Predict the 3D structure of the following.
Amino acid sequence: MEKAYISLGSNEGQKLKNLQEAVLQIQKEVGILTDLSSIYETTSWGFEGPDFLNACIGVKTDFSPSELLQKLLKIEQQMGRLRTIDSGYSSRNIDLDLLFFEDQVIENDDLILPHPRLELRNFILHPMCEIANDFVHPKLDKDMTHLLNACEDTSHPAQLPLSQWSLDLFFENQLLVFEGNIGVGKTSLAQKIARDFKVPSLLENFSENPYLEKFYDQPDRFALSLENYFLENRFCQFDNFFKTSAIQKMTVADHSFSKSLVFAKINLSHRNFQDFRSNYDRLSAQLVFKQKVIFLHKSIEKLMEQIKRRGRTFEQKITRDYLEKIEEGYENYRKERWSIPYHSIDLTDLDFINDERSYQILLQRIIAF
C-alpha cells in the first residue's frame, strides 16, 4: 500500500458533518486512515463566502494516483457537489483534493501532483504541518514546516479540538464489542470510550474467577473448571445486563460471549471441548442482541511487553506460544463459526491512551465500520 495526503474543506450546509462523512466514505472507498489533522476554521480563499472548515488526512491505499482521484471525485458527487470547469472559486459543501501521493510528480490533463499552489495556502499548510511537518514537497524540495514559515498567506486558521471529529460514535441499539488477544488493550479502550461518551460498559470479571491463577500453574488440571466458570459468568453478565437495562441502548464491552468458545478450544481436551460446546450453544441461543465487533491486533512482541508492564503476577507465566495459539484460535473461529459482522484494527502504531490523535484515528476507523 502507498501513502497519500488529502485535503478536505466545506463551507456550505452542515460543515462539520460534511467533513465527517467525507472521512467515513474515504475509508470505505479508498483505504486505511493513518493521519488526521485537527479541523481548522478559515476564511474563504479566493472569493467572498462563508468561512470554511478545513482539514488534512493521510491514507494508505492500493489505488493508483489517477484511480484515487476518481474515487475522491465520486465521493464528492455522491455527497452532492457538482464540479464545473469554468466555475472558479465558490462555496461548496465538500471539497476533496489529492495533495500528495508518496513523492510522485505527475503533470497531465487529468492530474497534477503535488497539488498546485498548496504552498500558498495556510488552510492546507497548517493541518499538513500538524500531521506531516517533515514531509518534503517533491518539486519544491522543502518540508511542510519550511513552506508554512515562508508562506505569504496572511490568513490565520483557527484550530479546533481534535475531539470535534468524533462527537458521535454510537447509534441506537448498538453494543460495541472489543475482542482480541491478551494484553491488546480491550479493557482500556472500552473504559475510555465509556467515560468519554457517557455510556455503560460491560467489563469482564476475570479477577473473580477462582481458577485463573491455578490454571496458569496447572493448566491441564484446572482448564475445564476455568472455562466453565467463565462461560457461566459471561452468560449471566450479558443476560442480566440486557434484562435489567432495556433502556440502555448504547453500550461498550471488552469481550464477547464467543470468547468462551475460542479459549475453550485452545485449553480443553477434545472430549471436554465437545461437552463444553454443547453447553455453549445452549446458552448462546438465549443471547440475541445487536452488536458491532472490533478485533484489535498488536504484534506478539507488543503483547508480551504489555503483559509484563501491567504486572499481574499470574500473567507473567504466559508464553509467546500461548499468545500465538490464541491469535490462531480467533482466526479459525472467524472462518468456521463467526456469523456477526466484524472489523479488524491494528493498534501497533495507535497509542490511544497517551496520544489524542491516535485515539481520534481509532474512533474514525470504528465509525467507518
User: Anything to note?
Assistant: The CA atoms of residues 3 and 115 lie 15 Å apart.
